[in-house]
Amino acid sequence: MSENLTLDDVAVPLRALRLLATDFGHLPAPSVQVSTIYPERLELTFYDDLPGFETWREALGIAPDTVTYREQSDGRTRVLRTSVDHAGAVLRLTAYADIVTPALVGGAA
Length: 109
Fold this sequence. Notes:
2 helices; 5-stranded mixed sheet; about 110 residues; elongated; alpha+beta
């Protein structure tokens, strides 16, 4: 489907982005992606910013129980993800954050 698409073919997520910038311009800035592979989707991604993800989730009225959690990179990175329809586009929020493993204190028993 991504062959020969025009900018008009991704107009829906671009319009959604314009509305988000107008309505939520005061929120933390995510990485933004619109792709010809998924021309109906607008992706907002947060790197090492779980509070930013949560701020957007709450502002958009997305229920916490729709957020999925998984780990990647052999358990070193947590991934939060949710999607919602917004202004005609599929809005996907994703957050990546390191999983901090506490250092052992003292000697081995």
